[in-house]
Design a protein that fits this description.
Length: about 130
């Protein structure tokens, strides 16, 4: 599990609310899409397919999502943490976990664009 700096999360959300750039507006819209998808969760193939499509779309749009995933995975390997969540989780749990990661990857992207952090990894407080 990845733990992020709460103060950075709050700062990213404030930056999005200010809507100082077109990218901030788009990030806010994408965060709303994630929240709507996440909150409408149900264990149907249609939902899982739609959530997966949104996840794939966001991965293509925000490089910080993948950077956050890679940094967290690297930190887990360095610490010797084995995470078998993919094997134990249902498709619904996996897709929802991906949406949460997408959400925070978008926030990391906002922080990078506003020079609050220089790389998505700086958003990660710890992993376990």
């Amino acid at each position: 599990m990845m733990h992020l700096f709460e103060n950075l999360k709050d700062e990213a959300l404030k930056l999005i609310d200010i809507k100082s750039t077109v990218d901030d507006v788009k990030a806010g819209e994408d965060l709303q899409k994630i929240e709507q998808m996440y909150n409408s969760a149900n264990n149907t193939q249609e939902y899982i397919s739609d959530a997966s499509k949104l996840d794939n779309y966001l991965h293509g749009k925000y490089k910080e999502i993948e950077q956050l995933c890679e940094a967290g995975a690297t930190m887990q390997k360095v610490l010797g943490i084995c995470n078998n969540i993919e094997k134990a989780s249902s498709e619904l749990e996996k897709v929802q976990s991906n949406l949460v990661t997408d959400y925070f990857g978008i926030l990391a992207g906002v922080l990078v664009k506003h020079d609050v952090i220089s790389y998505a990894k700086e958003f990660i407080k710890s992993v376990d």
